[in-house]
């Protein structure tokens, strides 16, 4: 099986390539250094190879308030990446199935995060442009499937966590930021200040679980959009308590800053469709997953140096 992975150097891509490699797939792995997907024709050097599947994971974004401050760049970069990938897929790789990632941010703020609502209403203002580029990726794939009988699968992950995240100082997803701050407080005596009142709720899916579910869905579904979520969410305070418990830090020392940006009050994907396809879905226990994540943080010193 010949497989192309864009975004192969990212958090999800690194894990996916490892799993595909272990399963004997013939993988072509691309990061932005091998191939800048914003440039038209950047994939033409691969046109002679006929791929069975293309996992399109590449996207230009970061967590926190990054999207709020980079809407123009996000529109230009992500629209170009996705347009180039879709056009190349249609022209050069119509035999391949395209598996790509949506985002929970694309859902409108006033409706359930259920697949039938993905293209309805208005996404939250702070993530609007990023959300709309992801919607356009789905619209493009749907259009090509309709006109050219091509095959795709759009998966919408909730926030993923696990060992192997970025250590390059970028804005991290909330769970990595929580671990970083609590570890720094524990090791360096810094104060932990968390954004918001701590009662905003989030869900998490362990990266290895996500990859297993993604590959299973890929073997069963096509021309669909499917959420991959945990089905339940916890307050930021509960995540902080779990981390403090593992690290051995007093959670009463955490200060909550209600003036800072917190994003949505709650974010939990509807997983009825997923459960229908995989009724026996079981994820890694949150405490076990967090222990793995914290062990990786300590081993790779991802909490950073003392300032
Ligand atoms: N992680 C999550 O919790 C989550 C949740 C929902 C959706 N998603 C979606 O899942 C996908 C993977 O997420 P991730 O967390 O793995 O993202 P990531 O760690 O930020 O990785 C992004 C990848 O995209 C590549 N990329 C960026 N700009 C590029 C360009 N101009 N040309 C070619 N490649 C480029 C990066 O390459 P370099 O390393 O060379 O920069 C990297 O490999 C994304 O589409 C994201 O929107 C992720």
Fold and architecture overview:
The protein is α/β, with parallel strands linked by helices. It folds into two domains: 2-159 and 204-228, NAD(P)-binding Rossmann-like Domain (Rossmann fold, 3-Layer(aba) Sandwich); 167-202 and 232-269 and 285-299, UDP-galactose 4-epimerase, domain 1. It has helices at 11-22, 66-69, 71-92, 128-148, 174-188, 207-220, 236-247, 272-277, 286-299, and strands spanning 2-6, 26-30, 53-56, 97-101, 151-157, 160-161, 193-195, 201-202, 205-206, 224-228, 234-235, 255-257, 266-267. The strands form four sheets. The chain has a six-stranded parallel β-sheet, with helices on both faces. β4 (97-101), α4 (128-148) and β5 form a beta-alpha-beta unit. α3 (71-92) runs parallel beside α4 (128-148) and α5 (174-188) crosses α9. The longest helix is centred in the N-terminal third of the chain and has 22 residues, at 71-92. It is globular. Residues 6-13, 31-33, 35-38, 57-61, 81, 101, 103, 157, 159-160, 173 line the site of NADP nicotinamide-adenine-dinucleotide phosphate.
State the main characteristics.
307 residues; Rossmann fold; 39% helix; binds NADP nicotinamide-adenine-dinucleotide phosphate; six-stranded parallel sheet; UDP-galactose 4-epimerase, domain 1; 2 domains; single chain; alpha/beta
Largest sheet: 6 strands, parallel
CATH topology of the largest domain: Rossmann fold
CATH architecture of the largest domain: 3-Layer(aba) Sandwich
Bound molecules: NADP nicotinamide-adenine-dinucleotide phosphate
| Strands side by side in the biggest sheet | 2-1-3-4-5-10
* Average of per-residue pLDDT values: 95
Secondary structure category: alpha/beta
Annotation field: number of helices:
9
- Note the beta-strand portion: 15-25%
> In one word, what is the shape?
globular
Distance between the termini: 48 Å
> So what's the oligomer here?
single chain
The succession of helices and strands, N to C, reads EHEEHHEHEEHEEEHEEHEEHH
Low-confidence stretches: none
